[in-house]
Design a protein that fits this description.
Layout (H helix, E strand, L loop, with lengths): L4 H18 L5 E3 L15 E4 L3 E2 L7 E5 L6 E8 L3 H16 L4 E4 L10 E12 L5 E10 L3 E10 L6 H22 L4
Parallel strand pairs: 1-5, 2-6, 2-7, 3-7
Antiparallel strand pairs: 4-5, 7-8, 8-9
């Protein structure tokens, strides 16, 4: 059985259209943003930000909307633009640099090295929406100079609207509030 040229062309076009229809669209990529905060003086001159530890459920490309009710609500086609631990390190460093003028903050796993006056460790235990809709950020933070000071910080920020952009903006604000508390731990007045 031979197909005419026009039928072959139609069949090829149909197969190409079918393949395109089955392909998933490119994911929407998001990034956390820095947020301004009050400047503080009196912090160490050089601070090393250790690699940020993440709860394993957050170690994924997709944005986790919620971990309530014993299940993860993951946004399938809305992803972080870079690994979350690296993004948190970058944004927290920028937030702290703004809040602690005269202090140099560098990441442990970056290209810059120096002898630090203090080391900062952060473990993110939770960063998603709670049942009430607020973004819940729970972090363990340690500051080590001659001695170590550690505490658990809990922050809630209500998104300004619905949808992923509002969720990511609330997460950015929560990271900014975390930077405010960390700046206080680092000895700023």
């Amino acid at each position: 059985m031979r197909l005419s040229v026009s039928r072959r062309a139609a069949l090829c076009l149909s197969l190409a259209s079918f393949a395109a229809a089955c392909a998933s669209p490119n994911p929407l990529l998001y990034t956390l943003a820095t947020t301004p905060g009050a400047e503080r003086r009196g912090a160490p001159k050089v601070i090393e930000l250790r690699t940020i530890g993440l709860a394993r459920y957050l170690e994924r490309s997709q944005i986790v909307r919620s971990s309530e009710d014993f299940r993860l609500d993951v946004l399938g086609n809305e992803w972080w633009g870079e690994p979350l631990d690296a993004m948190l390190s970058r944004v927290l460093s920028q937030n702290l640099s703004q809040r602690l003028p005269g202090t140099t903050i560098f990441a442990e796993n970056g290209a810059v090295t120096a002898v630090p006056d203090a080391m900062l460790g952060v473990n993110i235990q939770r960063m998603d929406q709670a049942r009430n809709g607020a973004v819940m950020l729970i972090a363990q933070v340690s500051v080590t100079r001659r001695e170590t000071t550690a505490r658990t910080i809990t922050i809630q920020v209500t998104p300004g609207g619905t949808g992923t952009p509002s969720l990511v903006a609330a997460m950015s604000e929560a990271v900014g509030q975390l930077a405010d508390q960390v700046a206080g731990m680092l000895g700023g007045n």
